[in-house]
Amino acid sequence: MLSPFRSMALLAALGAAAPALAGNGPAGYPARPVTLVVPFSPGGGSDNIARYVASRLNERIGSSVIVENRPGAGTNIGNEFAARAQADGYTLLFGQVTLSINPHVYPKLRYDVAKDFTPIAQIASSPTVLLVNPASGIKDVKGFVAYAQQHPGQLNYGSGGTGTSVHLAGQLFESIAKVEMTHVPYKGSSPAVVDLIGGQIQAMFDTAPSALPQLAGGKVAALAVTGPQRLEGLPDVPTFSEAGYPAFDAPVWYGLVAPAGTPAPVVSYLNEQVNLILDEPATRQRLAQLGSVPAKGSPQAFGDFMAKESKRWQEVVQSARVSLD
Q: Strands 156-159, 182-185: parallel, antiparallel or unpaired by DSSP?
C-alpha cells in the first residue's frame, strides 16, 4: 500500500501528465490540478475543513484540488513549503491562526508571513472552548476562576503544545481573570484530553472542532466558548461574555493564502469561488458540524484581519514570554 505522501505525489504526477484542462477562471485557469497544502496531519478538525473546501473547489473551478498534508513544527513545515512555491496559483495554503502567532513565537522563522503570502479569502472561524473534568465539581466560569484564585498555581491546564493558540488562550485568560495557572504542554490535543479525562490536569482550552467529539461522549464538560454568540453545536454553553469576561476572545481562524506574487486575477477568482462556497447552505451546515462558522470577505479584508490578529497575539506572546527555537 502506498503511503499518503507517495499517493499524493502519484496523483499530482498523473494530473500533470493529463491533457490541459479548460478551467473556469481567467485565461483558462486552472489548466492543471491545484495543490492545497494543509500544515496539519490528516483527520483532524483543520484537515476536515480543508478537505471539504477542496472538494467544493473541485466542482467549481473545473480542475482537481489535491490536498497535500505537510504537518510538523507548529505548522511551519507546511507554511514554509507553500511560501517557497511558485506564485502561479497552482499551490495554495490552508492557513490558520498560526500565521498570526508563529512570527512572534519562533525567532528563527524561515518565512515572512507579511512578505511571502498573498491573502485570498478567510474561510471560517472556530471558537475556543474551556473544558474541565465533570468530576472536578466546577460548574461554570465563575467557579473556575474562584478555584484558581483559591489555589494559585495549582490549577493545571493542558494544551496541544507550547506556543499554540490554545496555550496562548490560557495565558490570555490568566491576565484577564487575574489568576495564576500552570500550563502543561502535550504533543497534540488528544493526549491532553486523555489526561483531562483521567484527572491528571484540571482544565484545557481547546478548539471547538477538537472538543465537540469529546463533549459528545460526556467525559469532559464545557464551561464557555469564545466568540460573539453561542456555538450551534453547543447551544447550552454560554459565551465568555455571558459568563462575565467579554474581553476574552481567542478564536481559531482558517483561510486561503497563496505565495506572494500570485496573479491578481487568479486571487480575485479564487476569492469569489470561496465566498460562493461559503454562501451554500450545505457548507454552513458542514462547518457547524465541525464547530465552525463561515467568514466571508475580500482579499484586502482578510489581509487586514491577519495583520490585526498578528498584533494582538504579539502582545500575548510577549507578555507570556513564549519563545521557541
A: parallel
> Per-residue pLDDT tens for 240-276?
999 999 999 998 999 999 999 999 999 999 999 999 9
* High-pLDDT (> 90) share of the chain, %: 79
Grid cell at residue 211:
472538543
Compute the C-alpha angle 311/301/240, nearest 5°.
55
Instruction: Return d(Cα 72, Cα 189) in angstroms, integer.
Output: 14
65-69 and 34-38 beta bridge pairing: parallel
Quote the CA–CA distance of 209 and 291 in Å, as a whole number. 5
- 93-150 pLDDT, tens digit per residue, is 999 999 999 999 999 999 999 999 999 999 999 999 999 999 889 999 999 999 999 9
- The radius of gyration of the chain from alpha carbons, rounded to an integer in Å, stands at 20
- The CA distance from 129 to 116, in Å, is 32
